[in-house]
Amino acid sequence: MSRPLPLLVIALTLLFFCQARSQDAPAKEEFDPFSSEAQEALEALTKADSAKARDFLNPEQVTSLTERVKPALVTVRQIGRDGGQRGTGSGFVISKEGLVVTNLHVIGEGQPLEVEFVDGTKREVIEVHASDRHYDLAVLKLAPDGKELPFLEVGDSAVVKQGDLVLGFGAPQGLSFSVVPGAISAIRKLEPGFAGEGETPEFPMLQLAMPIEQGNSGGPVVNLKGEVLGIVTLKHRVTENLGFAVPSNDLKSLLEKPNPVPMARWSTIGTLDPRQWTAVMGAEWSQRGGVITAQAPGDGFGGRALCVSSLPVPEEPYEVAVKVKLDDEAGAAGLVFASDGDQVHYGFYPSDGKMRLTRFEGPDVYSWAILDQVEAPSYVPGQWNRLRVRVEKDQLIAWVNEVQVLSLADGELRGGKAGLCKFRQTKAEFREFRIGKDLSAKPLSEEDSKLLSDTLKRHESEGASESVLDEFGRQSDKSRRYLLDTVEDLKSKIEALQSLEGLVHRTAVGRELIMALDRPDSEVDLFEVGLQIARIDDPELDLEHYRSVFSQMVKEAETYLAKSAPEGSPREQSEALRDFLFKEIGFHGSRGDYYHHANSYVNHVLDDREGLPITLSVLFVEMARRLGIEGIYGAALPGKFMVGWRPAKGETEEAVLFDVFEGGKSHTEEEATRVAFELTGSAPEAESFEPAAPRDIAVRMLRNLVDIEINRRQTPEQAEDYLELLLAIEPDAAYERFQRAILRVQSSEVAGAKEDLDWLLEHRPPGLDYFRLEQFRESLPE
What whole-number distance in Å separates Cα of residue 99 and Cα of residue 127? Predict the structure, then answer.
């Protein structure tokens, strides 16, 4: 499997060329929902609602209500393994016997808890009276001390209305209690992927227009009667002035059907069984559903931590295996073996995109030896990967997903225990840890494969009949494995067919684009050229529909010109066409997501009336060609494409350039030069003011798309189709040919990369460092 092109490789591309390709410069940056601009805009809205709430609340009423609520508020703390504070949140008492409500994520699992009241009194938690992962709620039961506790009444959230005034209470950042006024700004079910912390809840929540800070989770939202209407659960990631609360009626369902767990039992939920595992050098190890999770740095050098298995290790040769998944490939986690239960052991693990085998013989890096570090194409980033190591008397052999990645002679450490390891800040998950003499995946016998294949054929005709299921069920493990292997085989065939379909489509688009350009420049239909470029990403594009839409628009423009410039000169007609496009029917430069592909596709520009300078220019120039307006052409200025008009020879009218991105604003050549200079830092060459050939316009449109993928989105593998199309119409484009060579190397198409590099070395276009290019060519494997 190919990996994404490293940014270093992309940067090295520039070393081979002295000139970078100019692109149409944006008027605005791409909108980022987590940017400071977005935060300011959102805060302006939410602060307004919060300010209105303060205006309507009587200060004396707030003070009185706070005095009533405050004694029932608590801070809930998780206590770490070292006795220190591990996490904190808010909570509140709902019964005089000592039931405390908070969020489930506040108390976590397997952690001792401490509850502290406003006056500093601490109470022991003896039971998790009720909990619900779906609603993220927990109800704690405190140890009785003979005193009745002040508590809050749980109100009816069903009667809450948008605009109701409320107060929120909590202990932000674990500090002393705070109170903030606000309002119920909405009651809504959040959309999937909503910008809130953690998983997006799937039930209606109370949207709060009030400041929400870390540590407020679990705090009450009360009405002006002091009744709890909601429990603060999450805040918006962009602004602290927008939060969400679980409605109080969802809490009532927990109270009606509690699921009590004594703290002695609760503290064992998610913890490792000490009879099976021993944690060494810290970190946080937990287990749920057969998956062991490791997070937080260990106490060892480099954040090293081990989890040693109590399973017996056989005599050599033996094997150790586990499936591991990392949250960040910059981290490291995997297998340990030949361990003394402390500082001495081997480790085999992914680290920074490579597989590493290390011998650890002490507490720090000076006693560690990296025995081998290799690329492993069989390793799939972000997925479950099976690591397997075979320990022989004087040899170590390792596999990733059943593909051997290394084998080396080393017999320094033997015996000991085996288990898991992690380093740095990595959060890693492990499953299916095994120790045995031979842990390799065994292929099915010919007899089993034939029997299961015949049964699968019966399924094609009979469906999941009782006899088919009975036959598969006779050897369910083998059946399941055979079916999964069949699925993977079919997936591979589907991927191959999809890839072939994509190549066929790309070839067809290339052929149509060449045909559209293969005629005299004055006869080239630029709109058709733009449609073919748009087709590369949309095989189902309805060409006839958009051809019809554009033709109708040309007719409307003709009618408009007949009224506004019936006897006008070519310049007056060009200005009238400018007005039609930008004043009459609303075309404009992109205001938001400048680098969105839609701005580069003429069909979307027609639909949205919004585009880049070059796509807007294509529509302008092609419309002028069809209307017979003389003197209109595309001007390929660096940084911003414009539409030019110049008089015929012998005429005295002054030439003009229309800045289509700015509503068709008219510029002299001197003014246009200043615009280009402000965008690029250099004045345009005289040839930039000459009419751009249709082929050059198509190349520039494709270069924009390549630039978006490689430089803006940093997804260079997505640029392949655009590069292929560009080279189909401009085979001498040296810069793009080198880019394609890099992409081909990255996707293991070494033969194709060599073809491109050989072409460059043979034709020797200017701007290349041929010494380095030849070195690169020689470095490629045969």
Answer: 10
The helix/strand/coil state of 410 is coil
Size of the chain, expressed as the number of residues it contains = 782
382 Ramachandran zone, left/alpha/beta (phi>0; psi -120 to 50): left
Dihedral sign of CA atoms 606, 611, 615, 616 in order: positive
Query: Are the C-beta atoms of 287 and 433 separated by less than 8 Å?
Result: no
Nearest alpha-carbon partner for 574 in 641, 673, 655, 662: 655
Residue type, 600: S
With helix as H, strand as E and coil as C, how does 710-722 read?
Answer: HHHCCCHHHHHHH
Token pair 């299921």 in the structure block, residue: 469
- Of the pLDDT bands very low, low, confident and very high (cuts 50, 70, 90), residue 11 is very low
Beta-carbon contacts of residue 572 (< 8 Å; ≥ 6 apart): 565
CA-closest candidate to residue 224, choices 55, 49, 52, 64:
64
As a whole number of angstroms, the distance between CA 7 and CA 23 comes to 20
Closest by CA position to 434, among listed 389, 478, 484: 389
Asked if the bond preceding 638 is cis, omega within 30° of 0, the reply is no
Distance between CA 729 and CA 769 in Å, rounded?
25
The C-alpha R_g of the chain, in whole angstroms, comes to 34
Phi-psi label, residue 401: left if phi above 0, alpha if psi -120 to 50, beta otherwise? left
- Residue 612's H or E segment, with its range, is none
Model pTM?
0.57
Please state, as a whole number, how many other Cβ atoms lie within 10 Å of the Cβ of residue 468: 18
End-to-end alpha carbon distance in the chain: 19
**pLDDT tens-place string over residues 269-324:** 777 888 999 999 988 898 887 899 998 889 999 899 999 999 999 999 999 999 99
Say how far apart CA 334 and CA 356 lie, in whole Å: 10
Tokens describing residue 72 = 């029932």
Quote the pLDDT of residue 724. Answer: 93
Going from the C-alpha of 343 to that of each of 17, 93, 195, 293, the distances in angstroms are 51, 47, 43, 21
Residue in 425, 405, 189 with CA at minimum distance from that of residue 304 = 425
Token digits for 535?
Answer: 């087709």
pLDDT tens column, 496-508: 999 999 999 999 9
**Cα separation, 164 vs 262, whole angstroms:** 38
Contact 438, 397 (CB under 8 A): no
What is the helix (H) or strand (E) element at residue 211, kind and residue range? none
The rounded distance, in Å, linking the Cα atoms of 535 and 545 is 13
Interatomic CA distance for residues 205 and 191, integer angstroms: 11
Q: What are phi and psi of 297, to 5 degrees?
A: -65, 145
List the one residue out of 290, 283, 300, 320 whose CA is nearest residue 427.
283
Q: Is the peptide bond before 317 cis (omega within 30 degrees of 0)?
A: yes
Mean of pLDDT values over 29-45: 42
H/E stretch holding 530: helix 526-535
717/509 Cα distance (integer angstroms): 19
- pLDDT (average), residues 123-131: 89
- The enclosing H or E element of 543 equals helix 543-564
Tens of pLDDT, residue by residue over 413-462, are 999 999 999 998 889 999 999 999 999 988 888 888 888 898 998 898 88
- Mean pLDDT for 185-211 is 67
Q: Would you place residue 56 in the very low, low, confident or very high pLDDT band (cuts 50, 70, 90)? A: low
Tokens of 433: 């840890």
Tokens representing 728? 């189909």
Concatenated DSSP letters for 698-752?
HHHHHHHHHHIIIIIS--GGGGHHHHHHHHHH-TT-HHHHHHHHHHHHHTT-HHH
Residue 102 in tokens: 């908070």
d(CA 434, CA 211): 50
Q: Contact, 654 vs 571, CB < 8 A?
A: no
Among candidate residues 735, 773, 730, the one with its CA nearest the CA of residue 754: 773
3-state SS, residue 677: helix
